[in-house]
Design brief:
2 domains, 260 residues, Beta-Lactamase, alpha+beta, single chain, two-stranded antiparallel sheet
């Protein structure tokens, strides 16, 4: 798969539109903990003046990306068009869906395609099992990479030195009482994943949830994402889950290698 021409070059500051960058910061400032904000609250969150925050918010209201009651502001469903533009224009997320559908039909388990963005894993494509019993990570969901099976597969592809830099930088937060918080333990687990060629996690982000993931690579060997399934731990033993899912995941990943 051909990379965008500007992906790995340094762009001069004079060529950047700072207002657009800040506008994206304003949109992404809204989340579960800040679904509604005043101009003052937004200003503090994105480090701009209150008057600037108000202008950004009113502009979003004007173009239909936000609504207001005169005091609080919140995003509208129209914001989803931004993500849809990516899904409509990007070849791989669309091309991978039929493979996810076949894998879901084969395993009767929900499947995902994910990528690494910064220190987060982002779920890009998903196909739900007919009777999904687990809480799914819908497209657009972001999780700290160390908490997710797909995230660990993607992290494990990094050289040891880069993993050390990542672990020095990242703050490990407990999502369950079993989330791995020891950085040396996490490093060793990532090295093991790299050697095994797949990852399995349990109870890291949600109690009772197991994830299994394998890397997806291009014909040139470049890592382009992760393929994963999620299931209830109670549905089968760990050994049974590995025996059932890992060969199917790897076979699908190998088939995808010929398409990207």
């Amino acid at each position: 798969m051909k990379k965008p021409a500007l992906q790995n070059i340094t762009i001069a500051k004079r060529d950047l539109i700072e207002g657009l960058i800040k506008g994206i910061d304003v949109i992404t400032a809204f989340n579960d903990d800040a679904a509604r904000m005043t101009a003052t609250e937004l200003a503090e969150k994105v480090d701009i003046s209150r008057s600037a925050a108000r202008r950004y918010l009113l502009t979003l209201v004007h173009i239909g990306l936000a609504s207001t009651d005169g005091h609080n502001f919140w995003l509208t469903p129209k914001v989803l068009n931004l993500g849809r533009s990516y899904l409509d224009s990007a070849r791989l997320p669309r091309a991978i869906v039929p493979f996810l559908q076949r894998l879901t039909l084969q395993l009767q388990i929900s499947t995902n395609y994910s990528v690494l963005e910064g220190d987060d894993v982002v779920y890009v494509s998903r196909v739900n099992a007919p009777q999904a019993l687990t809480s799914g990570f819908e497209p657009g969901t972001r999780l700290p990479a160390y908490t997710a099976t797909a995230g660990r597969v993607l992290l494990s592809a990094k050289p040891d030195a880069d993993l050390r830099v990542y672990l020095e930088r990242v703050q490990l937060v407990s999502f369950t009482h079993l989330t791995v918080l020891d950085k040396e333990q996490l490093f060793n687990e990532l090295v093991t994943i790299r050697a095994d060629g797949f990852a399995l996690t349990e109870n890291q982000y949600e109690i009772g949830l197991r994830g299994i993931s394998v890397p997806i690579k291009s014909r040139s060997g470049a890592l382009i994402g992760a393929l994963s399934v999620s299931m209830l731990i109670s549905s089968c033993s760990k050994a049974e889950a590995i025996a059932r899912c890992v060969p199917a995941l790897q076979a699908t990943a190998n088939t995808l290698m010929m398409w990207v």
